[in-house]
Amino acid sequence: MSSAYKDHLGRPLIAVTGMGVITSLGQGVEDNWKALTSGVSGIHKITRFPTEGLSTRISGTVDFIDLPAENAVERSYAFARETTAEALAQAGISGDFNGPLFLAAPPIEPEWSARFELADRSRPSQKPADAYDRFLAAMRDRADPVFHEAALFGAISERLSDRFGTRGLPVTLSTACASGATAIQLGVEAIRQGRTDRALTVATDGSVSAEALIRFALLSALSTQNDPPERASKPFSKDRDGFVIAEGAATLVLESLEAAIARGARVYGILKGCGEKADSFHRTRSSPDGGPAIATIRAALADAGLSEGDIGYINAHGTSTPENDKMEYGAMLSVFGEALAGIPVSSNKSMIGHTLTAAGAVEAVFSLQTILTGTLPPTINYQNPDASIVLDVVPNVKRDAQINAVLSNSFGFGGQNASLVMAAEPA
């Protein structure tokens, strides 16, 4: 392999040759990028299911595709299918993909209403208090393949593998908000280790439901600023009060740069580095001192062979929760020091909400678009700055800037942290 195709450690450079994305802003990279850079919000009042009595009644759901309202597996699969078709078309790959599939998918389980329904059909004499045990017993006593698949998120990767002809056993992972970035990291590692010349990395989440809203509300994680919906997500602002739950998906086609050039593929960017660290502080909270996040960013930079001064833009995790935004700022400040004030840092979540399992991959696509187009997407709703967070958040309006390298952060519930470094194609 020519040294032109290797990184600083002698590993294959990883090219991105295809991208696809769906968010509440629309379907496809072009439509999403146009809306995102125009400062359009996809957050809206929930109409898919009743929200009476809920403290949060807004979300970034994908409602323009006709899908079963309560089947999270079917919704997540459909989003992944559409973004993968777009990415493969962009990459110029038809027929079998002939490479491994790494899928980030939500940890889907049947809602309680479905558990009661199934259990009542098989063991009606038992009391509702025994519902979960009855559900398990019902699945053993009377198999229901349709219902079973609706509660089996591993079925998403199997269906994608069958449809697009991936090679080997598809890998499904779920590491909370870091999942999308982790799926990309697995694809990068597979190519670096010489196990394949290409990898399909997909992240999807169609799991917004009343039960999901209740669960996150119990953690005090969601914004309750319901009116107007489009102003609820306000990362790094003083009056931020929580994230807005959302849906979406993204697919990236990864190839060794050598293989991509050999087949004449267009290269949209290079996956230079990946960093990943666990945070054992709490099941949902990040360590207040930001230690694991700091280590994650530094690991990504080291893996990329870049210094802090090489990063021209940061796509922040930027959830709009009081604690997480403060922690991320502290982590970035520890790594970049005084130079951080001069690095633009914006949050896509101000417009699309938090797509949970899909977020890391969705934001990777937008980071690559920043490099390709020379446009920095804004952080909207930035009207009330937090004096304790001194950042150039690209407030409210996009900005033109030539960027050669981007850091994208994904810091997840449960302690999983991941950062990606993306760069322009080598000259």
Explained architecture:
This protein has 427 residues and is an alpha/beta fold. The chain folds into two domains: 3-108 and 152-423, Peroxisomal Thiolase, Chain A, domain 1; 112-150, no CATH class. The chain is 34% helix and 17% strand. The protein contains 13 helices and 15 strands. Strands 1, 2, 5, 6, 7, 8, 9, 10, 11, 14 and 15 form an eleven-stranded mixed sheet that branches. A two-stranded antiparallel ribbon has the order 3-4.
Brief account:
The protein is an alpha/beta fold and 427 residues long.
Name the helicity range.
25-40%
Oligomer: single chain
Q: N-to-C terminal Cα separation, in Å?
A: 17 Å
Query: What's the number of domains?
Result: 2
Quantity of strands, as a count: 15
Relative strand content: 15-25%
- Helix tally? 13
**Low-confidence runs:** none
Largest sheet: 11 strands, mixed
What string, H for helix and E for strand, traces the elements in order?
EEHEEHEHHHHEHEHEHEHEHEHHEEEE
CATH class of the largest domain: Alpha Beta
The chain-level mean pLDDT equals 91
Structural class: alpha/beta
Give the C-alpha Rg: 21 Å
CATH-defined fold name of the largest domain: Peroxisomal Thiolase, Chain A, domain 1
| Mass-distribution shape | globular
Q: Architecture of the largest domain, according to CATH?
A: 3-Layer(aba) Sandwich
The CATH superfamily label of the largest domain reads Thiolase/Chalcone synthase
